[in-house]
Amino acid sequence: MQTKPKRITTRTLRSMKEAGDKIAMLTAYDYSMAKMLDASGIEVLLVGDSASNVMAGHETTLPITLEQMIYHAQSVIRGINRCLVVVDLPFGTYQGDSHHALHSAIKIMKESEAHAVKMEGGSEIAESIERILSAGIPVMGHLGLTPQSIYKFGTYQVRAREEEEANKLLEDAKVLEELGCFALVLEKIPSALAKKVTESIAIPTIGIGAGPHVDGQVLVTHDMLGITKDFHPRFLRRYLDLHDLVEQAVWRYIEDVKNGDFPNESEQY
């Protein structure tokens, strides 16, 4: 009799940090990819608002809606057996109004059956985080480069190089821990700062462009597999060139169709 795989929970991640075990996290937006990634042993899947970029073709993450995020999350949940699924609260669903934030988080949790939500920002969204946590919904924080604020920053360059911003980020990390966030994404900040933050808080840190001294790493799956071709940040390691492999396969298919080689005798009824 096949045993059911042990579920990854927020407590699992805390235990992994305490044991010094690194956490592996990737993005997923659909059933088929989620099923493959879960079966491969990934600990955390992020239904990221990066779906706005890689699935819908938008320039930024801002256009994606709460309903679209729920659709992607529902698809991912149906494909997994063991990993923790975290869903981004999209732009405009939690900033400035903690009651609206709670409504958005509850809607995601009830309609998608995901396990947690992720929110960008520090002390300025503390009230929203606190209200969501009070409802028993786990929250993952996100500091450093926060793509939902791209028009405020005006650039995707590394954040918190200057002392003032670095100090604020460190303080925000402590605030998020004190509020009750179970983990924290650190995006595109100096490695030394990420190390300092990781050593200063008890909750796990997940880095993307934050160096090796964090408790885990996350990448956008479409970038890591080479499905996207026009994104080349320093932190990205491509483990496959799937774009070219798919293109070659389609070329062969087109050629076989036009030559009458597909379908052959064994491929018909």
CATH superfamily of the largest domain: Phosphoenolpyruvate-binding domains
Oligomerization:
single chain
User: Taking strands numbered 1, 2, ... along the chain, how are they ordered across the largest sheet?
Assistant: 1-2-3-4-5-6-7-8
Proportion of strand residues? 5-15%
Instruction: Count the E strands.
Output: 8
SSE ordering: HEHEHHEHEHEHHEHEEHH
CATH topology of the largest domain: TIM Barrel
Can you tell me about this structure?
The chain contains eleven helices and eight strands. It has 269 residues and is an alpha/beta fold. It folds into two domains: 10-238, TIM Barrel (Alpha-Beta Barrel); 243-269. Strand 1, helix 2 (31-39) and strand 2 form a beta-alpha-beta unit. It is globular and about 65 Å long. The chain starts with 9 loop residues before the first helix and ends in a 10-residue tail after the last helix. The relative contact order is 0.12. The model has no long low-confidence stretch (mean pLDDT 95).
Topology:
Layout: H1 10-19, E1 23-27, H2 31-39, E2 44-47, H3 51-54, H4 66-77, E3 84-88, H5 98-112, E4 116-118, H6 126-134, E5 139-144, H7 150-153, H8 163-179, E6 183-187, H9 191-200, E7 205-208, E8 216-219, H10 221-224, H11 242-259
Parallel strand pairs: 1-2, 1-8, 2-3, 3-4, 4-5, 5-6, 6-7, 7-8
Key phrases:
8 strands; 11 helices; single chain; 2 domains; TIM Barrel; globular; 269 residues; alpha/beta; 42% helix
Write a brief caption for the model.
By secondary structure, the chain is an alpha/beta fold. It contains eleven helices and eight strands. Helix 5 packs across helix 6.
